[in-house]
Amino acid sequence: MNKQTLINKILFKTSLDRKTSDQIIDRLFDVIKKEIISGNKIEIEGFGKFEKIHKKMLRKANKKRKVEELLPPRDKVKFEPSENLIEELNSKN
Asked: What's the longest Cα–Cα distance across the chain?
């Protein structure tokens, strides 16, 4: 699903117009992004939590070129789904 599909789904389920829906999605993602970059956790009840994690330098074997590479330290985003979301995912099967 891309952003436009998400906006269309919101339009279908609400009485909001396209411009308002687009602004809500943009602002929501902007707030989430800024909070994660700042190091704050985002926890959405019934959905899950997002948090920034720091990865140390990693040695990785490149089997194709037969050399060992060093991946620099970096920050990543970790998503952990809530138990409710996991239950819903598994109940659909």
From this structure: 58
